[in-house]
Automatic annotation (TrEMBL):
Organism of derivation: Rhizobium lusitanum
Domain of life: Bacteria
One GO MF term: methyltransferase activity
Name of the molecule in the record: SAM-dependent methyltransferase
Keywords per UniProt: Methyltransferase, Transferase
GO biological process, one term: methylation
Amino acid sequence: MKQFQTALDGYSLVTAQSISEHARSTVNNFTIDQTKEGEAELALILSLTQQAFETNAPVHGIMKALTERLQTLKNKVTPLTWTHLAALAQMHPVSSYLLQDPLTRWSFEKPRGYSGDAQLLDFIYEHPAVASQVKEASPLGTEIYDFTRQAASAVAVRERRDLLAGHVDAVASEKPNAEVLAIAAGHLREAERSDAFKSGKLGRWVALDQDPISVGSVSSAFHGSCIEAVNGSVRTILGRAQKLGTFDFIYAAGLYDYLAESVAVKLTERCLQMLKPGGKFLLANFAQDIGVEGYMETFMNWPLIWRTDRDVQSIVDKVKHPIADSTVTRGENGGVIYAMLTV
Ligand SMILES: C[S@@+](CC[C@H](N)C(=O)[O-])C[C@H]1O[C@@H](n2cnc3c(N)ncnc32)[C@H](O)[C@@H]1O
């Protein structure tokens, strides 16, 4: 598959290597015994999965067992041992079955050169933009996709998109011509679900992303509307290199999962500075207990910084900017944690 080059800004840990270096820097207790035990357990899990595929066992059951077993193993070992095991899993022949799923394959191959690009999200959104690739999948790949697109992480991401649209609509109903900024906007799919956008109630909606391909897609999809697609990054925001103006609502979804805490705190402070009085900032982060990290980090090669509610609260607590009100909550699915800050 063709690889596009995106100039990564070095602030977000969007490559498997950068995130594993992050894991290595935080925990360093790699014991030989644990490694050997983990390797043996992983080998068993993967050979049972392979046998199940070979004997045409029901796919939903195979995927459920694999996901749960990988999760149990991940929870048992240190982050460093897990990084080692994940690399072994990726080399196992069972991956030839799993990579028939278009979602697993796109995530694993990373055609844009980094994890979590907007097209990957389109497979999760079940968006028409990827319908032809979904249609081309083998019958087995289609069945595996039926499982992965219903995984807790995927359900939480679709819920997140709908919640974002709801927040934009709520801000628009309070403020005529509201100005909104989406950081790491991807394809801005939430705009397709916003009534305020469709009825022309917004002043402007700036969609900023580091990936020029995604910026180009937003620019052509929403040409002639109040949506402005901007190529920029955490680095350009923190360095004040772009004059974006001020906003009633700023949000970042699918970004904090790649930011070390120190960068997350700095970015939050900068976003609060860009708000108008009474404005709101929302950040979203995948929750640590979502239960599918094991599969995502192995066969999807999609490691993230999974956070607890306390970790998200810790980012908020470290912010040195006046905050009038703050809440840390979860959506109905519970897989994403949201911090909403009002200045
Ligand atoms: C998982 S997608 C989320 C897209 C969108 N917010 C959504 O929820 O569908 C992550 C996006 O973050 C962007 N991104 C990652 N690191 C970034 C950075 N340092 N600065 C700006 N954008 C970044 C990627 O290009 C990608 O579009």
